[in-house]
Amino acid sequence: MSNEILEQLAQTLEERKDADPESSYVAKLHHKGLDTILKKIGEEATETVIASKGGNKDEIIYETADLWFHSMVMLSHHGLSHNDVLNELSRRFGLSGLEEKANRQK
Question: At what angle do helices 25-32 and 57-77 cross, to 10 degrees?
Fold first, then answer.
C-alpha cells in the first residue's frame, strides 16, 4: 500500500506541475521556482526535527509527511521521482554505511 500512495502522489504532482498556480499549491511552488521549493524543504526539515525533539509521535508523523511531500515536489521539479530514490536505497542495501561512504569519496 505504501508504494501505491507514493505512486499516486507522484502522478498527482506531475499532473499539477503545470496547472494554474492560483488553483494548485504544487503549481504555485513550481511557478515560484526551485528556491521556494527548497525553502519549504528546509522549513519542513526544521519542523520535523522540532517534532522529534518533542517526542509526540503524531506530530513526528505529520511533519515527516510534510517533509516527504515537499521532497517529492523537489524531485518532480528536477524530473525525478521517488523511484529514483528507492533505486538508490536498493543499491545501498547490504552495504555498510561506512563502506558506502568510503565508495562515494573515491
Answer: 60
